[in-house]
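Standup notes
- DV: blocked on the single-chain target, sequence here:
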Amino acid sequence: MRPIALGRKNYLFMGSQRGGKSAAIAYTLIETAKLNNVDPQAWLTWVLDRIADHKINRIDQLMPWRYAAKAA
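- DV (later): unblocked, structure below
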């Protein structure tokens, strides 16, 4: 949470409302991975390698808690 507090002033200048929404999504994904004791960079790399061929109705298989279970 500290990086979010440190950058609070910078968030006013995301460039656009769409940029702010994109940043919020990115922060949510990263913090969700951290809460599940998963390295965010490793998890995002794993997801990006698989998402192109993944079925949309099975998106829950790409969540951080699933990655943690596979890594254990």
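- Follow-up: The chain has a mean pLDDT of 84.
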